[in-house]
Amino acid sequence: MAIATVLLLTGCSLGPDYHKPALDIPPQFRATATTQAAAWPTQDWWHGFNSPELNGLIAAARVQNFDIAAAIARIRQADAQVRIAGAPLLPSLDATAGASWSQIGLSSRSFGAGGGSSTRTINEHNYNLGLNVAYEADFWGKNRATRQAAVSSAVFSRFDQQTMALAVVTDVAQTWFTALALADRLAVAQQNLAASEQTLAVIRGRLDAGTATALDLAQQQALVDGQRANIPAFRNQLETELNGLGILVGVPPERITVRPGTLTALSLPFVWPGLPSQLLARRPDVASAEAQLVAANFEIKAARAAFFPTIQLTGQRGFANAALGSLFTPGGIVASLAANALQPVFDGGLLRGQLEQSKGRYEELLADYRKAVVQAFTDVEAALIAWRYTTEQEAAEQQAVNTARRAADIARAQLAAGTVDVTTVLNTELTLYNDEDALTQIRLSRFLALLSLYKSLGGGWVQPSGPIQDQFPGLSPGLLPGAIALPVGGNVR
Question: Domain span at residue 270?
Fold first, then answer.
């Protein structure tokens, strides 16, 4: 009855209860039109670029990436910590068994006629078998708060893994787009080199005919040499980007066999944000920041409960007898029950320091959480602005390339006809090369802006509903709904 009474009393909570912090959420994004319908990313949003090579690289990275594998291992560690933290909530039960033997020799001397002494040996056997039970009554909720803090940390580990997976996917796409852009810049350099070499041949012919000078030939030769010198640099950068895919995909770079195509062959899928308030449920980094905050709140509860008495119940039930054959007889039954309470009186400020430390940790994580929220809004605004202006810039630069190409064609034709000098041709060819190279770089910036927009919108991730500490019952170490990465090497056990 005493145990039942204590168990019924167990359940007091010293607070504070967690409440979602007040946030300054804008009504809408500044860079979006109020009439624009939202188009949130899907979980396989990268398929919208229509690049089989990119799809294959991302599929490999989701399974083999080292950072994702490490994040999954941290989930397992966090789940194990939940089990460790939950152990004090249940009684501990130990089985004991023992046997002992001792021998005592007794000497005696007889007095009287003949005198003498004798020795008698006594053998003692003792056997025992029993169960020991110990339980700490969690009257103030300290152990429950400790376990709930561990649960929230385990939830954080899942959100952290999903944040890592999103970063890996976008890094793969960014590296791949950069490789395609370098391949395009290499192609532009090679095309312009070929055109400049044709012009050089024309000038050489005119020099032989006496209608051009050696200076004209040297100027065009310098342009050709400069364009030829750019080609190894582009090849070097291209190979570096392709090698960089190795660490993302989780294989040595020698196993990367994909060859880049062209950035102009890819599609640009449409994506558009909804309201800022909806964004917070789509960012795993914001969810992970809040999960840490919830864990810190429970740690404050545990630190407060440490100021109050702990009640320990112990019991023993078993058998003990000097004869093994009669060990389980009614006369061999032993039982005991004990309870004790421990109240801190003086600890040199230890408990107060631990409580203040927990409060300080909560304030730190609260600032981190609010920063994560503001950072989420900032990321979306920055991506929207970059997308808008790179789109405008690409259209304007494309017009510049068209104009420069017409000018270069006209100049080359007039050079062949002998109606313009070499300087005019040099200027038009250099302008064309610079504009085409700039167009390729601006196109890459536009792709990266769209990629940043996908990432800033959470990459198709959606936070599960319900209280944060109850979102993942059982805390299975496998990946959970909303995750965008697969377990490494099969199911995590």
Answer: 14-89+156-307+353-475
